[in-house]
Amino acid sequence: MSGNTSQLQVGDKTVDMAIKEGSVGPAVIDIAKLYAQTGMFTYDPGFTSTASCESQITYIDGDKGVLLYRGFPIEQLAEHGDFLETCFLLLEGQLPTAAQKADFDYRITRHTMVHEQMARFFQGFRRDAHPMAVMVASIGAMSAFYHDSTDISDPHQRMIASMRMIAKVPTLAAMAYKYSIGQPFVYPLNSLDYTSNFLRMCFAVPAEEYKVNPVLSRALDRIFILHADHEQNASTSTVRLAGSSGANPFACIAAGTACLWGPAHGGANEAALKMLEEIGSVDNIPKYIAKAKDKNDPFRLMGFGHRVYKNYDPRAKIMQKTTHEVLNELGIKDDPLLDVAVELERIALSDEYFIEKKLYPNIDFYSGITLKAMGFPTSMFTVLFAVARTVGWIAQWKEMIEDPSQKIGRPRQLYTGSPQRDYTPIGRR
Ligand code: SDX
């Protein structure tokens, strides 16, 4: 490499490739012309060394455990702001003024109701359907109800679709939960803030008044901030790829929701809590640590490890603090799951295997304990992740659509299948 170009020797050819510097973080080697100049592709399954796009939204320094939304540290946003302020920041790039915040809150609040016919849509599901299946379907179905905001070439329609999803996904999530427990849907209440409204839609019943616990509402609002965006993770990359074909915004967010469901990604919070329940007691921890280290055992410590963080996930630290706040508020003195989690973390962080592989707790390790204490069933944990991540997906989708150089994403492959061969009639096979 010299200055801002790098050279690649391919056979007798020397290929010059530009190096592009970011504002912070790793530079990139622009390989766009590599195939045209060499007839070869790069090869990077899992994209461990591949930047798929240029973005100004979220920055992660995995070695230092740093997470910035539009340059602001997650610790400061979680401490001082609220989730809708974070939504404005991710979408617009700056923290809102008081007037902008009031206007944004007003507009989101008045989009929280869903088309009444969507309630009938839920009747098609079995009561025991996983709520993530319901979310994938109902977010995608929004494109069947809101035709007036599916033209992605119209900035006004893009803005309306964005507002509608940020506002309505919590309502759909609460409806998915209510449907799963056979309770009536609860309409949103405009007098409540975003997260209090969501808690009431989940836990209020017509038979009695519901009073939002401000400590729990603040805790969940902070949890939403922690989950709002995270650079080019699997589900965000899914949204970008779906959006690159010109698919409507609701379909793109439904695709991201489907990807988030996987246990290696957003499904890890549900899997981590199930793992803690399976371990059951501190005495069983050594057995599970051994399983996690055994190459022949597919078991992994759910909530541990991360593609980017090779240090403590900064969100996990804030999550751990929030867990203690919520358990104290609820008067839960000794939660056996928390005891297992704290001891499992202590043992893992002092074990050579985890140290050498730089495996630390990630955001999913403590979130399940908190959400369970709040009254959410395990099956709702990834739904809550999707509620929060909807704004990140939308901000990334918006950035891509507004990029004049945007084109459809279409990776290539290393083909190792059969070379061309001729068809043989069935009688001669
Ligand atoms: C999220 O990308 C994001 O930003 C995601 C996310 C977001 O906000 O969008 O942060 C949210 O998805 C957090 C991650 C939640 N997933 C889990 O907690 C599931 C458990 N973790 C792992 O499955 C794993 O750590 C991943 C998927 C998170 C990361 O996998 P990588 O980067 O592909 O790493 P790897 O699988 O290649 O692991 C490297 C090594 C391997 O050992 P070797 O083959 O080198 O010998 O570490 C081992 C792995 O076996 N390893 C683990 C482990 N995670 C990795 N061993 C035991 N337990 C684990 N949890």
Main attributes?
single chain; 429 residues; mainly alpha; 3-stranded antiparallel beta sheet; binds s-citryldethia Coenzyme A
Explain briefly what this protein structure is.
This protein is mostly helical and 429 residues long. The chain contains 18 helices and 6 strands. The strands form 2 sheets. It has a 3-stranded antiparallel sheet with strand order 1-2-3.
Overall description:
This protein is mainly alpha-helical and 429 residues long. 50% of the residues lie in helices and 6% in strands. The protein has 18 helices and six strands. The protein has helices at residues 34-38, 74-80, 83-92, 98-109, 117-122, 131-145, 155-180, 194-203, 214-227, 234-244, 249-260, 268-279, 285-293, 314-329, 336-349, 352-356, 364-374, 381-401, and strands spanning 5-10, 13-20, 28-29, 58-61, 66-69, 72-73. A three-stranded antiparallel β-sheet has the order 1-2-3. The longest helix is centred in the middle third of the chain and has 26 residues, at 155-180. The radius of gyration is 23 Å and the shape is globular. The mean pLDDT is 95. S-citryldethia Coenzyme A binds next to loops. S-citryldethia Coenzyme A is lined by residues 46, 230, 233, 264-266, 268, 292, 300-308, 357, 359, 362-364.
Give the overall silhouette: globular
Reading the helices and strands in chain order gives EEEHEEEHHHHHHHHHHHHHHHHH
Unreliable segments of 5+ consecutive residues: none
Strand order of the largest sheet: 1-2-3
On the 0 to 100 scale, the average pLDDT is: 95
Structure summary, number of beta strands? 6
Separate helix tally: 18
Bound molecules: s-citryldethia Coenzyme A
Helix content: 40-55%
